[in-house]
Amino acid sequence: MRALGPSDFLFLIEAARWTILLSLSAFIGGGIVGAFIALGRVSERKWLRWLSIGYIQLFQGTPLLLQLFLVFFGSDMLGLALGPWVAATLGLSLNAGAFLGEIWRGCIQAVPRAQSEAGQALGLHYLPIMRRVVLPQALRLAVAPTVGFLVNLVKSTSLTAIIGFVELTRAGQQLNNTTFRPFTIYMTVAVIYFLLCWPLTLASRKLERRMNVAYRR
Amino acid sequence: MNYTFHFADVWAARQELADGAWLTVQLSAVSMVLSLTIAVFGALARTSGPKWLRMIVASYVEFIRNTPFLVQVFVIFFGLPGMGLRLDANTGALIAMVLNGSAYTIEIVRAGIEAVNHGQIEAALALGLHRLQVFFKIVLPQALRAVFAPLGSQFILLMLNSSIVSVISADELTAAAQDIQSRTFRSFETYIVTIVIYLILSISFSAVFALLNRLFFPKLERS
After folding, report:
1. CB burial class (10 A; 0-12, 13-18, 19+) of residue A175?
2. What CATH number corresponds to the domain at position B71?
3. In 3D, which of A203, A130, A157, A127 has the Cα closest to residue A16?
4. What's the CA gap between A215 and B223, in Å, rounded?
């Protein structure tokens, strides 16, 4: 057991950048998956709708930790040696895609139906209606809940510590193994997460309030 | 891909999985009930308590909601013994789940309370009801009716989060799965079966919530 010095806290703060980077890459991956899920969910083809519903139910109805285990051990079994980076990003992206897809579906469906009907009446096809009429309006609605979801994503990255990815939580565990000051270390880790997440929570709340004002008639 | 699946080892361990799943159900159900109870008082304090109490509840809610559950589990299970409070794994898991669950539940119940029409409260006060009577007999039932659906989804998330307490080796489903896979080296098969059990659990919980919703809050007749 040794005392905690300033360099130990610096070690934790430096580890936080891996948390940030992993959150960003999982957000990009999750955004791509989520876009397909959202579009599939509002598609005119029944089988696409059912496929998206099944995907959402599967990923929202099971623990993220188990999903990470399956990606990690499953890739191993298939003989693909995914590094911890790729496995963590892939697992988090597949999960985030289900949540983002469901959030964005709500935003797409919140755009009044008359908008796409007017597009049809003007002779536009599905893609231009989506791209030029529905999605730009849905995007405005999507900003606040998407920022809110980012908080969940940052918190989820902590689970990759269990499959051995070194980010903030894992760094806390490593530091604890050498210094054995669990309360101070894990509280510091919690405070760093709080400093990452709270601004996002506040921003999401502010955006939501602004949106409510804008849409009040 | 040249991998042959072997589910025989997992099948041999079915009793362990069943015991684990049962503990997951128990942990989840107890922490749902405790969270909701704490949340009712927390939300009451948050909406109509004195200012200092409102501040305390609000900071608690914000801190829990903006930090990962895994880290909360570590603080409670590894941090508290250093301060002289020793916990066994299952108790530690339950405390962590209740502390986490009540923060989210307070926010939901508070939203429900704020959605109750103010005229209801004024009418009840005018009828001579005491403030606490107004809260428990008029405001709370309407608030819970309004937020029953988000409450249900939150509780399912709580159940799924219980898999995280396997890191402190509470004897729930995920921990059972980890035991089995480390003994049999059939990690993929074990986790596939486990994830299916979780899926069944979450579908069952949402069916139970739908039933409770119908039981407690039958559809209002609209005139």
Report:
1. buried
2. 1.10.3720.10
3. A157
4. 30
CA distances from B1 to A91, A167, A188, B5, B121 (A): 21, 32, 45, 11, 66
Q: Do B203 and A61 touch (CB under 8 A)?
A: yes
pLDDT digits (tens, 9 = 90+) for B27-65: 999 999 999 999 999 999 999 899 999 999 999 999 999
Q: Which CATH class is domain A6-215?
A: mainly alpha
Tell me which residue has tokens 């009801």. Answer: B129
Interface contact A21, partner B, CB < 8 A? no
Neighbours of A173 (CB within 10 A): 18
Domain locations in chain A? Answer: 6-215
- Closest-CA distance of chain B to residue A141, Å: 20
CB-closest option in A79, A183, A198 to B66: A198
How many domains, chain B?
1
Q: Is residue B1 part of a domain?
A: no
Nearest residue on chain A to B204, alpha-carbon basis: A61
pLDDT tens per residue, range A94-151: 999 999 999 999 999 999 999 999 999 999 998 899 999 999 999 999 999 999 999 9
* pLDDT number for residue A215: 67
At position A31, the amino acid (one-letter code) is: G
Task: State the smallest CA–CA distance between residue A125 and chain B in angstroms.
Answer: 37
Nearest CA in chain A to B80: A183
ipTM of the modeled complex: 0.91
